[in-house]
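Figure 6 in text form: structure in, sequence out.
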């Protein structure tokens, strides 16, 4: 492993929030949904999750804290159950949340995970971190509201309404799997390497900074549109 590798990876990580601004609803996606049936909802859900860097940054933070495939599977499953509940439930019941407010909270979840991974609770707050499995479930519920907000931004029509929601949800799960495979591969392969500790600290500080940046961005646009 060369010394350039951590710097190169962090450079690409730095670019993620910059591309996250495109993580929303486009007229092109609406056209796909209008003409493609249920498979189109799966495709758009997959695309949305793969480009959902706020969601993926949080999940990367969770994976950093875990060791072993069984633990990773357990925590990702809990997160998935959480976001499925609110994605399907909120969309079906047409519960709407301001997109900037919910994305600001999701940004705070990214900040939280970086802070926790760096032992911020015992070091700065002199207390134990909350139960991680519970927090992952809670943040899963919040992330699901963000996904529901995006889905409700589309004109879905009245026909096959529940099937469209479920199809979008299937796409989200497929996108999550596709995005997590390289993240898990990189993090697990890096463990044990001599640069891992430096990479771990730098990447989690990055999560904190990215969370702050995304939070400020969303709050700014909330007041701009108020």
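Output sequence:
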């Amino acid at each position: 492993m060369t010394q350039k590798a951590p710097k190169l990876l962090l450079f690409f990580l730095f670019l993620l929030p910059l591309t996250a601004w495109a993580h929303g609803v486009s007229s092109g996606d609406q056209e796909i949904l209008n003409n493609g049936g249920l498979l189109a909802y799966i495709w758009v859900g997959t695309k949305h999750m793969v480009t959902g860097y706020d969601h993926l940054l949080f999940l990367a933070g969770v994976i950093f804290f875990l060791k072993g495939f069984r633990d990773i599977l357990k925590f990702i499953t809990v997160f998935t159950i959480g976001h499925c509940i609110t994605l399907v439930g909120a969309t079906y019941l047409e519960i709407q949340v301001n997109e900037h407010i919910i994305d600001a909270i999701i940004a705070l979840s990214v900040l939280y995970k970086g802070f926790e991974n760096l032992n911020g609770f015992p070091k700065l707050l002199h207390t134990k971190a909350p139960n991680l499995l519970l927090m992952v479930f809670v943040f899963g519920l919040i992330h699901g509201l963000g996904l529901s907000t995006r889905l409700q931004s589309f004109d879905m029509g009245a026909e096959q309404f529940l099937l469209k929601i479920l199809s979008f949800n299937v796409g989200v799960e497929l996108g999550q799997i596709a995005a997590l495979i390289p993240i898990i591969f990189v993090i697990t392969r890096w463990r044990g390497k001599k640069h891992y500790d430096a990479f771990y600290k730098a990447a989690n500080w990055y999560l904190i900074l990215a969370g702050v940046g995304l939070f400020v961005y969303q709050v700014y646009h909330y007041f701009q549109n108020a």
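Caption detail: The chain has one domain: 38-224.
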